[in-house]
Amino acid sequence: MLEIRNLHVKIADEDKTILNDLNLTVHDGEVAAIMGPNGSGKSTLSYVIAGKEDYEILDGEILLDGQNILEMEADARAAAGLFLAFQYPLEIPGVATMTFLKAAMNAQRRTRGEDELQPAAFIKAVNAAADQLAISKDMLKRALNVGFSGGEKKRMEILQMALLQPKMCILDETDSGLDIDALKIVSEGVNRLRAKDRSFLVITHYQRLLDHIVPDTVHVMARGQIVKSGGKELALELEKNGYRDYASAA
User: Residue 180 contacts by C-beta under 8 Å, 6 or more apart in sequence?
Assistant: First the structure.
């Protein structure tokens, strides 16, 4: 379970507060969506949870299964079961995709005191997950994300998530730049990972993603705080009426 309590965050070295007394709980097995206008702090929230260093925590806690992850480095948060799928995945020239995947999986296994994967078991796991996400063998042979389309990069993010099996998955505008076919493939990959012991925080501007990844709860974010929460019908209301009323309420 993810619990965020009274979180206040500003940009490091600047007098600009981004998150203001933000409170949010995502229960085990829950898919929670966060929607809101540009500049409301949605991506900042995802970065702060993941451990990006560009922000200063002024107050509050972020608890993952009761442990305050603000006291942990980013790699320790990942090993504890946190995963962030980026809005704009980075290209890493010179780093082979398979090398990256193996290093990530074995790093987490070592942290948990588990044996590293043998080559045959690793290749079998990658191929099985890649087939479900329409990731070709050619993509797996290339440098990580180099020359990939937007949809291919997002599928690679979901492949990493499928292999690492995190407890808490944060999707930061995963639908950004996806056509209809790619959106369906990515959404199906996410839905296959839904489980009673795995939670999702889905950040998006648009209802269309939530037609494919149906949330249990929807939270409206404006001016750095959650201003309203409800069921999946709240997303339809936002699609119809926009964010004006919630932004003024914040």
Answer: none
